[in-house]
Amino acid sequence: MSILMSITTFANTKAPLIPRKILFGNPDKVSVALSHDGKYLSYLAPKEGVLNIWLTKIDDLSNANPVTYEKVRRINSYVWAFNNKDILYTQDEKGDENYRIYKYNIETKETHLLTPKENVKAHIIGISDLVPNEILIGINDRDKKYFDVYKVNLITLKKELVFKNDGFSATIADQNLQVRFVASSTKDGGVEYYQLKEGKLEHFMLAPMEDGISTYIVGFDKTANNIYLLDSRNYNTAVLKFCNLLTNQENIIAKSDLVDVSIMTRHPRDYTVQAVAINYDKTTYQILDNTIEEDIKYLTNLNTGSLHILSRTLDDTLWLVAYESDDAPIKYYKYDRSAHKAEFLFTNRTNLSQYKLLKMQPVIIKSRDGLDLVSYITFPAGAILDKGSKPNHKFPLILYVHGGPNARDNWGLNIVHQWLASRGYTVLSVNYRGSTGFGKNFINAANMEWGRKMHDDLIDAVKWAIAEDIADKDKIAIMGGSYGGYATLVGLTMTPDVFACGVDLVGPSNLLTLVKSIPPYWEPALNRLKKAIGPWDTEEEKEFLKQRSPLTFVSNIKKPLFIGQGAHDPRVKQAESDQIVKAMNQAKIPVIYALYEDEGHGFGRPENSLSYHALVEQFLAKILGGRAEEIGDDLQGANLLLNNQKNLSPQTIKKIFEEAIKK
């Protein structure tokens, strides 16, 4: 399929570079939310360079103040309790993902830790307007593999064990904060759900392995007698069902032949699903409740971006909405339903508005075996786009691969796309097989295809770009994080002649060591992992994984490689990067290795993120010839070892880079 919009003229190659500090520094505001009574607005914003929770009255935005004071690591997530007094938030240590739960009370201005401080992972299971001063949380303090369920009183801070978990991967509670369902992994990688009735567990449903990712309980309605179920059994794409638990009657209320449906918004008090999202190459909406039809119509006409309903007050008179575009910062609005009027509040990145951002174009690429790969392409700054023609100038291409692999790329503002395109590169992201949302057949087409057909999809995308005269075959890079990092290592070891260089962030190098080092709380999902990656119980099975591990083929590497890793990563341990770097050193193959000593599976500190992208930018420029902003002071504050060296001078960095790319 031809690109939707193509380059006809290569124009101003000196378009202003968007500074890295604007792209990868802290946003102005993110995770914006309303209190349930609509009196307050909260968001994450920098306080002394670290993202903290800020609070302001909804009618006085100019007087916002921070209510948390994290000094080192940003707060990852938070939620309002229904008492409208407590804000619940989570925090970990150096990216280890052992999240602790805190509560901040806006009246007493006191902060309390609700869960153990060390060596325990916790998460919030449920909050409800029916019991506003209580929450349900899961903690793996007794058994690292499973999360016991506790009810916590937000006034007394008393914690009560309500469900002792001796083998279940998930627990699901209703609006009364009663545990009603539990789930466990089956031997063949499926998920079995049990209903808790009068203290006893009864089988409810089985989601076979092929449906395990796309079949699950969404939640209850207010009566607690009905559930919403996303279900791909007997279908390819997941449909939304409304199921009565008393009569066992179920009805399909939303479906799409192209993709799995997802929830757009639910009524804040009744918990009924009122609209769903249909996201193929872009998102459309399907309204299920006509009481919000005029609201959605008004809001979709207000802005051309994708509409997101972030918060609704309990009385449903006030909504907080956001619009996401591919070439503009996210815009936030307050919507008064009674007045049928929306008021602009702010954007998430004010400084980004002064730069001309670039359009992201959806494109469907055919795989060699006939799959439709929903992909997104961004052409570089200086390119004039016009419909109906092919590019007359080839730019260096960067294949940017998403992680997961059970995740997906979406249309919208992608900071990495904007960064690389600003430097003169065409950027292509591909939803390869195994990406979620496109139906279970597409997900399961990836089973036991790591380093094989999943990688073939990426190579097919490269071949498409070359055939379309978009890319010069000698100037194509591959980069990504997590699975995207693995794909990068596969690209440079198993298809060594395709890519000019690669950038791997926290990517596994050996599938055998990866599966043997997973966190204990991932063990319930091991059966699913064995079906997805491949089993490892026999010597023959181990050899199968060995043949799909980049570490096995290190000697094939002939192009420059940059590796980034967090020392506290619980998912892809530091050893995954250490071992391939060691093997390359032993084979006298140059490599650049950036180890961040206070990070995990990605970046929690903007100083580290800024330094990483500054180094990667220089790396790509030296090999592909794109533009690069000077490093300047972008390494200041980063806790970084570069090829085992600290306190890096410009001369040291230059020497490391020269040695790594001299081949």
Describe the structure.
The structure is a single chain. With 663 residues, the protein is of the alpha+beta class. Among the domains are: 5-19 and 354-661, Alpha/Beta hydrolase fold, catalytic domain (Rossmann fold, 3-Layer(aba) Sandwich), CATH 3.40.50; 190-288, no CATH class. The protein contains twelve helices and 38 strands. The chain has a nine-stranded mixed beta sheet with strand order 29-30-33-32-34-35-36-37-38, with helices on both faces. Strand 6 and strand 7 form a beta hairpin. It starts with a strand and ends with a helix.
Helices and strands, with pairings:
Layout: E1 5-10, H1 20-24, E2 30-34, E3 40-47, E4 50-57, E5 65-66, E6 77-80, E7 86-91, E8 100-105, E9 111-113, E10 122-127, E11 134-143, E12 146-153, E13 159-163, E14 170-173, E15 179-185, E16 191-197, E17 200-207, E18 216-220, E19 226-231, E20 239-244, E21 250-254, E22 262-266, E23 273-279, E24 283-287, H2 293-302, E25 306-312, E26 318-324, E27 331-336, E28 341-347, E29 360-366, E30 372-378, E31 383-387, E32 395-401, H3 415-422, E33 426-430, H4 440-444, H5 453-467, E34 471-481, H6 483-494, E35 501-505, H7 511-516, H8 526-532, H9 539-546, E36 561-566, H10 574-586, E37 592-596, H11 606-624, E38 640-642, H12 650-661
Parallel strand pairs: 32-33, 32-34, 34-35, 35-36, 36-37
Antiparallel strand pairs: 1-31, 2-3, 3-4, 4-5, 6-7, 7-8, 8-9, 10-11, 11-12, 12-13, 14-15, 15-16, 16-17, 18-19, 19-20, 20-21, 22-23, 23-24, 25-26, 26-27, 27-28, 29-30, 30-33, 37-38
